[in-house]
Structure formats: structure tokens, C-alpha cells
Amino acid sequence: MQNILFVCTGNICRSPIAEGLMAAALPDARVTSAGTAALVGRPADPLARELLLRRDVRIDAHRARQLDSEMCTQADLILVMEDVHRLEVRQRFPFASGKLFRFLGPRGDVLDPYHLGIDAFTCAMAQIEGGVKQWVERICQLSKR
């Protein structure tokens, strides 16, 4: 799993947070993110940057990108924040279905904290940290095989 792609809606909150945390945990992997309705060119939300900075993770260079076919082709693993993203990616890029997973699995969605304040961002951060930890463990187990 060398190429990991995170997907959310605007690509300025959840997926950049996940990208930053996963890249820090798996420095040899290529970790990227994109949005199904990206706010193209915008930096990560200031609250996302602030919460990651508290964890010594910087995403200052992040700029939102629109999900496209090439990104899905290059990815070994595509992790989406909500089930609606999984359905949209599957519909738009059916070839990616075998490597497409809901980030939190059956535990649910990471709700979008956009414009909802620090409490919503803190909640999303906690969910994303837990999800990254579980995916890192899975990826490391697969790498040992």
C-alpha cells in the first residue's frame, strides 16, 4: 500500500487531516487527498491546520484538489469519509471499487466539521486519529506478508 488517497467533500477539512496524520505515520508511503466537490486551490481550514500543528503535523502547503480518474488509478487504497463519498466514487470511477473503503468502516462516517467550530473539528480529529491508527496497523500487517 504505497499510494493512499483520502476523499471527502471539499478537501479542506477531513481528508487533509487524514492525509497529514497518515503521512506522518507512514513516511515511506505516498499519501494524498481530494474532494468530490473540492474547493479547488483553497488551503486547509485554519482549524484543521491548528489541530494538526498541536500534533507537530504541518499541512500549510495543502491545496484542495478535485477527485479525478488519474488519482483513483494511481491509488492502491482509497479511503472515504462518508458512505455517500463511497457511493459517488464507485459511480464515477467503477474501476476503483476493489480498492475503495469507508474510512471508519461499519463504525460510521466522519461528519464534516466545516463552519461548525472547534468542537466539531475536535470530534472529527479524534475519529480520524482512531481511523488512521487502525489503518496503519492493517497496512503494516499486510506489508509483513
Summarize the topology.
Layout: E1 3-8, H1 14-25, E2 30-35, H2 46-53, H3 69-74, E3 77-80, H4 83-92, E4 100-102, H5 118-144
Parallel strand pairs: 1-2, 1-3, 3-4
Helix pairs in contact: 1-5
What distinguishing features does this structure have?
about 140 residues; alpha/beta; four-stranded parallel beta sheet; 5 helices; about 15% strand; globular
Summed up:
This protein is of the alpha/beta class. Helix content is 43%, strand content 13%.
Give a verbal description of the structure.
- With 145 residues, the chain is an alpha/beta fold.
- Helix content is 43%, strand content 13%.
- It is built from five helices and four strands.
- It has helices at residues 14-25, 46-53, 69-74, 83-92, 118-144; strands at 3-8, 30-35, 77-80, 100-102.
- Strands 2-1-3-4 form a four-stranded parallel beta sheet, sandwiched between helices.
- Helix 1 crosses helix 5.
- It starts with a strand and ends with a helix.
- The mean pLDDT is 95.
The run of helices and strands is EHEHHEHEH
How large, in whole angstroms, is the Cα Rg?
14 Å
Number of strands: 4
Q: Counting H and I runs of at least 4 residues, what is the number of helices?
A: 5
Average predicted confidence as pLDDT: 95
Label the structural class.
alpha/beta
Shape estimate: globular
Largest sheet: 4 strands, parallel
**What is the helix content?**
40-55%
Q: Major sheet: order of its strands?
A: 2-1-3-4
List unreliable stretches of 5+ residues. none
Distance between the termini: 12 Å
The percentage of residues in β strands lies in 5-15%
